[in-house]
Amino acid sequence: MVAFLDVTGMTRWVSETGLEHVLADMVARVRADFRRWTEFERAPRVASHSSIGVIELMPTSDGQSYGFKYVNGHPANPNRGLQTVTAFGVLADVATGYPVFFSEMTLLTGLRTAATSAMAAKALARRDAKVMTMIGTGSQSEFQALAFRSTLGIETLRVWDTDPAAMDKLAANLRPLGFDVTVCASAAEATEGADVITTCTADKSNATVLADAMVRPGVHINAIGGDCPGKTELDGAILDRARVFVEHEPQTRIEGEIQQRPADFPVTELWTVLTGAAAGRTSAEEITVFDSVGFAIEDFSALSLAYAATRGTRYVQDLEIVAEPADPKNLFSLLSPARVMA
Amino acid sequence: MVAFLDVTGMTRWVSETGLEHVLADMVARVRADFRRWTEFERAPRVASHSSIGVIELMPTSDGQSYGFKYVNGHPANPNRGLQTVTAFGVLADVATGYPVFFSEMTLLTGLRTAATSAMAAKALARRDAKVMTMIGTGSQSEFQALAFRSTLGIETLRVWDTDPAAMDKLAANLRPLGFDVTVCASAAEATEGADVITTCTADKSNATVLADAMVRPGVHINAIGGDCPGKTELDGAILDRARVFVEHEPQTRIEGEIQQRPADFPVTELWTVLTGAAAGRTSAEEITVFDSVGFAIEDFSALSLAYAATRGTRYVQDLEIVAEPADPKNLFSLLSPARVMA
Q1: What was the pLDDT predicted at A340?
Q2: Are residues B8 and B87 in the same domain?
Q3: Domain limits at B151?
Q4: What share of chain B is helix, strand, coil (3-state, %, to 5)?
């Protein structure tokens, strides 16, 4: 039997444990896995593109466990009441090849992306960062805000989205939790006084949601919406003024903001900062960019944490995914012999 | 909600519909999809190899539906009571990216592999073929035999396996269904008088389960066990005497029997035979080899058939895989606000 954490199980686990507690555990888990980066299989995800969206498979393995995530990205989905991004994932035992854990990952992706962003910002943002601008206030935004507060102590948010209702939603969700939220009239207004700028928009195009002039020295940019070929968010000139950090360079060359720059544009893989092999921020004036596209190891971390936390609890149910004939070579025995010739 | 066909649901559907009926439908479905081959995305599967096995993801899409299979191959599993191959798969809607069908595929893989083999043999074996040799009598073997009987009328089997219990199992399963089964003492004995030879062994090595001398003119070889880098079954000399047919040439170059031959060794993609663009068997003396490794389109066909047949029936259950917030941009609303700060 495979343990299944469905949407209800996931929401109960996260709500009853406390979202900020889960986010803190997630930051620690993702960081620990980034620090053992080279133990993992690392390959760009496998994407199936259509004119209106993408479906991706993101596998990796650390030699003991294998994990993969299925995730889609369909920017027009909200117009028909559907989510832009949905996901699910599986963990399996490398020794047997058997799946052991199956989980919803729409919520879990929100958590792992927020945890990864906050972990990167902890290493790259100024220690005295107080104000975060959020450009794009969709599904991911509240998770981002909570992860940044628990990791960096940021409580002041200046937000901008082309959809006013989405901004109001964020404000309604976060003000009761103690955030100081300013709903702005433009991206330029939102970026006034920013120490950290998070861009998280969904359009599958080369957009410029953040112009060069909006970025003052010392800012850390958490760029998470540019994550597909032909989908970017930043004015390319920002990249030229900044030090750029990435997850897995070969994937980010294909999918990240650095699509806008030549193949030899200098980048630093984030895991090398976390192990101390490479420098993070080197001055208070430096502009740092985490050109995040989402990598399979982050999903592996999230699945591993969720499995460890919910295994054997009432949050999960058993699914009969794997046939288990008494004689493993007698798969045929599972069929009723009398009916084979029906 | 996603429709889920678990192991019990699959066995009930197949048993109650009749295995041979399902196999006949599967042959037709796989054939129809092979005949529209160029409508599908075609890429080699994504494999994660360890010292004792492999885990693979096999995605494809026809532009309307997207499907993928998770499948492992662990030859030592039966020694610990586990199956060599287990699998599950998913169908999704390309327009929304949402998954719609989730299915066990351990049994379904047995059906789709048998259907593909029989479909290929129908195009490539001699019309008067009466005797099939089966080298390897593991989990797949009974499905192969039934598909060949329903498609080519073959009822006479000569079998060989290094595990005598596995041969006895096949005989016990198939004799009550009307097959004439001869359990042999060697591969050489099993191949005497063969018109079709099916090789389906599990060892992840370059083995020679079928020697050149065992293959007389006019034989069709259904080679399905050699399906990984470093995993082959045939004496390479057989390939030189034969015309070799493959599923997706780039994948078979990596995984198939033709690993043993140079990159320009001539092969014919099977779909071109089925559309009439290429010749199949051209004489009664020709040796034909279907160098089958298993391709994602076959799994797509199998999932599509199972989904169409079981959707809305008691064979499937609903799984809550996809979060469905009332406001698609308010994923956060699924969490209990009172608990976020716990």
Answers
A1: 55
A2: yes
A3: 126-294
A4: 40, 25, 35
